[in-house]
Structure to design on (439 residues):
């Protein structure tokens, strides 16, 4: 130790281990020259540049280390799932028709009936016999899921909630924006007065090939604080969820909270085999650079209502404009790094494969076949009709369906002879363009 500077170690204070080989000054230069020649044999490292002006303060600049060109192929990017809240006053005639449809669904053997809502993407939503908590009506198709509250039940919760399914958004193309606009405008005709549609949950996804994440990648991750605009949103969950498949291979990585910001990185091909959603493969086959013999992984950021509200995303238009910003914030919030000798992970450069996912958005023009139209099936109508007739016969105390039907018609009019005729006209309008199927 130096007497003048006690914390500074001098060369004299260092001890050389016994048996160590001492090199002469000339030998040191020769050894250093050999090492430099060995390093010069490697090609320069290549990484795609992030869409930003210069280096960013959070070290999102690409790695400048030694390696080869990144083989990452981005197949498709877009909206994977969108949930919208609808605020407004439901029309009284629509509320009455919804109540009738729910009664039909409860009487039907299959527990569902055709709803009075107009077709969505060529399919009439089916009314389910049971609602969900806080919502009275539950309507579904292969593309959309809708829950609606009865009018006059307060304004604490939204009047309706629309969930646009993943298959519909990808099938419509345009990165899911086309399907988002259709879903946002769907219920406008069913409400009166002012209506407001607010994004409630948005999932952004990217499918890629060329890199399979491993446990070494997980060890080289950093999770930073959310951007300044999100500081009001608590970041409560710092845990990292890992799921392993056959022979201990990594299949999924999850981090964050669903009501705030959440990452889901998983083997999409393995999920397709488990769930049978083969329509995803049809989309991949139409993408440029797709390699059928390689694994396909999906990076998905789920943005909850708290985060969207913190960024002042209150309309569908503001959501569409903010999609690139939301994706970039997700990549910076949870980041995969390239290890170096630096003791701090936050100073490690961004991994090449993670930086390759930065641009948003690569829109694919590939689409799937349209879902077939649901037609009024006689089996469902007959089942509901038989249920109503037997109930009417039991209430009237008669054994004749004709007598029970006459009494039901009399009760349905309720002193207004034209009420049944108006319902008939509404039904004709509802089923116009549909043919009766036998099963």
């Amino acid at each position: 130790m130096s007497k003048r500077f006690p914390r500074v170690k001098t060369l004299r204070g260092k001890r050389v281990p016994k048996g160590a080989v001492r090199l002469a000054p000339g030998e040191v230069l020769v050894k250093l020259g050999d090492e430099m020649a060995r390093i010069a044999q490697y090609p320069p490292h290549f990484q795609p540049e992030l869409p930003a002006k210069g280096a960013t303060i959070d070290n999102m600049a690409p790695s400048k280390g030694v390696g080869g060109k990144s083989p990452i192929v981005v197949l498709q990017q877009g909206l994977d799932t969108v949930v919208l809240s609808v605020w407004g006053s439901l029309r009284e005639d629509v509320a009455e028709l919804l109540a009738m449809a729910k009664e039909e669904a409860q009487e039907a053997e299959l527990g569902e009936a055709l709803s009075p809502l107009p077709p969505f993407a060529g399919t009439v939503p089916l009314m389910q016999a049971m609602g969900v908590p806080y919502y009275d009506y539950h309507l579904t198709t292969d593309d959309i899921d809708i829950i609606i509250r009865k009018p006059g039940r307060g304004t604490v919760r939204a009047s309706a909630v629309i969930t646009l399914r993943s298959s519909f958004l990808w099938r419509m193309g345009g990165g899911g924006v086309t399907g988002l606009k259709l879903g946002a405008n769907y219920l406008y005709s069913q409400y009166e007065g002012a209506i407001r549609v607010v994004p409630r949950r948005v999932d952004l996804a990217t499918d890629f090939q060329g890199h399979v994440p491993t446990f070494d990648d997980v060890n080289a991750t950093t999770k930073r604080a959310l951007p300044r605009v999100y500081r009001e949103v608590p970041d409560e969950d710092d845990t990292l969820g890992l799921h392993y498949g056959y022979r201990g291979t990594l299949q999924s990585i999850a981090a964050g909270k669903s009501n705030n910001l959440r990452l889901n990185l998983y083997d999409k091909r393995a999920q397709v085999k488990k769930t049978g959603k083969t329509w995803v493969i049809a989309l991949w086959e139409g993408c440029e650079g797709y390699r059928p013999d390689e694994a396909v992984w999906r990076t998905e950021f789920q943005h909850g209502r708290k985060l969207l509200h913190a960024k002042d995303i209150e309309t569908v238009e503001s959501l569409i404009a903010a999609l690139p910003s939301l994706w970039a914030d997700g990549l910076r919030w949870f980041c995969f790094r390239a290890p170096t000798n630096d003791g701090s992970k936050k100073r490690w450069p961004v991994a090449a494969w993670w930086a390759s996912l930065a641009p948003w958005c690569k829109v694919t023009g590939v689409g799937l076949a349209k879902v077939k139209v649901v037609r009024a099936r006689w089996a469902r109508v007959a089942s509901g009709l038989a249920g109503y007739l037997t109930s009417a016969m039991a209430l009237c105390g008669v054994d004749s369906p004709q007598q029970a039907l006459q009494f039901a018609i009399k009760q349905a009019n309720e002193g207004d002879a034209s009420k049944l005729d108006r319902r008939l006209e509404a039904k004709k309008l509802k089923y116009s363009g549909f043919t009766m199927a036998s099963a």
User: Anything to note?
Assistant: The two ends are 93 Å apart (CA to CA). The chain has three domains: 11-38, 71-372, 375-439. DSSP finds 13 helices and 13 strands in the chain.
